[in-house]
């Protein structure tokens, strides 16, 4: 690809309450980001060629993409849904620590390999993203609106970082990342929305 654009969804109500997973709507700030996103994208693309938008199947990514221009094709991928936290889905980190103290420690010790009970690990996510990466490699002008863990893995792939470091990559909310692969490495530009 010439460039790939990446963004997390806008702040969701679960982000606001500190809950993981789920399928919450955007918060008022999240909606503001959705309204800002077309402008951020326009700035960073530089001309008016349309992008193709890939979201997950979850409401927060679809809501984030909804003000993008009508000539942008949008596609929803289940493979872009957030890391499945299994029995911990919908809990806060404090609740997980209280209810599953051993799991909390195990995850801290090996976050890449730790698999939530009935859910996934980062390692699992890297495997399920393989078809996405393959499709991405042969596409141009794709904007991906997805979730923190997923974005970390895609980011690590393009930045040629070891996947085992992906669980700690910094991908803030309300920030559009433009990655441009080059012969010597990948150029990165970040556009932070001031909301
Ligand atoms: O809190 C937002 C979120 O996307 C959760 O849904 C997800 O479980 C978590 O981030 C992933 O981040 P970490 O692997 O650091 O817990």
From TrEMBL:
Residues the record lists as binding substrate: 8-15, 60
Family classification: In the C-terminal section; belongs to the phosphoglycerate mutase family.
Name of protein: fructose-2,6-bisphosphate 2-phosphatase
Portion of the parent chain present: 225 to 419 of 452
């Amino acid at each position: 690809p010439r460039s790939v654009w990446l963004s997390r969804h806008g702040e969701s109500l679960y982000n606001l309450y500190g809950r993981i997973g789920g399928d919450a709507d955007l918060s008022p700030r999240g909606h503001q980001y959705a309204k800002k996103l077309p402008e951020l994208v326009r700035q960073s693309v530089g001309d008016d060629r349309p992008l193709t938008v890939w979201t997950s199947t979850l409401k927060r990514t679809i809501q984030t993409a909804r003000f993008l221009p009508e000539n942008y094709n949008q596609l929803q991928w289940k493979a872009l849904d957030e890391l499945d936290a299994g029995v911990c889905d919908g809990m806060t980190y404090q609740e997980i620590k209280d209810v599953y103290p051993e799991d909390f420690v195990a995850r801290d010790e090996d976050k890449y390999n730790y698999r939530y009970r009935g859910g996934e690990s980062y390692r699992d996510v890297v495997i399920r993203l393989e078809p996405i990466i393959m499709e991405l490699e042969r596409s141009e002008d794709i904007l991906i609106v997805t979730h923190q863990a997923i974005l970390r893995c895609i980011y690590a792939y393009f930045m040629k970082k070891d996947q085992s470091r992906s669980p700690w990559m910094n991908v803030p909310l309300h920030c559009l990342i433009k990655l441009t692969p080059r012969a010597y490495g990948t150029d990165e530009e970040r556009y932070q929305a001031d909301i």
